[in-house]
Amino acid sequence: MIIELFATASREPARTFFSLFRPGDAQKVDARGRGLLLQALANKDLPSRYSLGHFLLDEGAPLTAGDGGATALHVLFGQVSHDVGEDARIARRLIDAGADINALDDNGRVPFLEVLNMKYSDEDLNPIYDLWFEREDADFTLVSVHGVSPISFAKKLPFRGSVVDRMESYVHSHSSPSSP
What CA–CA distances, in Å, run from 47 to 7, 12, 36, 96, 151? Predict the structure, then answer.
């Protein structure tokens, strides 16, 4: 039954998930330590993804990492289809619940790299970008095992000019003064 619930969270409409869900299920994790929230955030059906994500956050589902160290933010932004406004709303809830914006997956990638890879303009992505820029602890310089940081990645993309400017300004204003 629990295996079916996990598969349903990631593949089926929300109504199917709710027909199987029982009180206490939100805290369960699968054999690999992944919680239902991670599964729900991978659902290809956008209304189901957001409905299940908000429901599971309301139920106190754990923010467990998945295969490859992917966090809830990695999974949310790593999908092909998005509703940027809904992504921003659920991401804010994830961050408020303790999701680490600088968490590294097994390849040393931070979730912001997934955001930069989304097929939307900087203007469209501003509600998501703002989640990082309003924090004091965002790190746009963390380099993955492949030698890529959010800043270096964005600089390679011709349509990411405005966010590059924002990242560079943020890094400059948040760096500690160097000693003489």
Answer: 17, 11, 16, 22, 32
This prediction has a pTM of 0.93
Closest CA to 162 of 120, 111, 114: 120
Asked whether the beta carbons of 37 and 72 are under 8 A apart, the reply is yes
Q: What is the mean pLDDT of residues 119-139?
A: 97
The dihedral sign for the CA sequence 168, 95, 160, 107: positive
Cα–Cα distances in Å, from 84 out to 59, 118, 124, 150, 162? 23, 10, 7, 19, 18
- pLDDT in the model for residue 180: 44
35: nearest Cα among 47, 24, 44, 50: 24
If you count them, how many residues does the chain have?
180
Is 60 exceeded by the pLDDT of residue 178?
no
Average pLDDT over residues 72-101: 97
Handedness of CA 74, 77, 80, 83 (dihedral sign): positive
Mapping DSSP to helix (H, G, I), strand (E, B) and coil, where does residue 35 land?
Answer: strand
